[in-house]
């Protein structure tokens, strides 16, 4: 194979992304929704029943992000995300 030194080298435009990054960005845009509202709900350790009842009643597709703030001992491992997942079809993300 010989190179033609008279032809300029073909280069990608500077603003293009690698295919993998572009695919990830497209997938993220297709699957993510932005919440119109953010609602914070606080509960003490005894508030699980009320939270379960609340999330059973809230439709999963509502364009609202809920932040659940739980008051617990720092020595206690919370299972709130797993317990609430049984009562809603919403995606649950645990923040620490």
Question: How would you summarize what this structure contains?
Answer:
The chain is built from 3 helices and 2 strands; from the N terminus they run H-E-H-E-H. By secondary structure, the chain is α+β, with helices and mostly antiparallel strands. Strands 1-2 form a two-stranded parallel ribbon.
How would you characterize the overall build of this protein?
This protein is of the alpha+beta class. Helices cover 30% and strands 17% of the residues. The chain contains three helices and two strands. The protein has helices at 19-31, 48-57, 80-85; strands spanning 37-44, 64-71. The protein has a two-stranded parallel ribbon with strand order 1-2. The radius of gyration is 24 Å and the shape is elongated. The model has no long low-confidence stretch (mean pLDDT 77).
